[in-house]
Amino acid sequence: MAHLDFGWLTITTPLPDLYDEAMSVLCEFHSDMFPIDRYRASAIQALILDFKGKTEQARSHASIALEEAEAKHSGFRYHAMLGLVKSPDEKIHQKLQSLANAV
Prior knowledge:
By secondary structure, this protein is mainly alpha-helical. It has one domain. It contains five helices and no strands. The chain has helices spanning about 1-10, 20-30, 35-50, 55-70, 90-100. The model has no long low-confidence stretch (mean pLDDT about 95).
């Protein structure tokens, strides 16, 4: 999950000089097995796209991230609680809510 860890580091630090590389790595190695993975990938994309002034795309990814944060089932029959977003980063979550609700 290094692609998600790297992207997360770039948005939480923030490291805008690495945003293009983070997006590239995220696209190359995307993995969407669990809600937490989809949440982190969408959050990373939303915040980077917002930084780049791509508001509509950022809003779309923010909405996806927020939907994944609300997931109550992993999609796996025997591991229903595996990979859920249990305690999202408060600051990131607030930014996502602002982006998703922006007009």
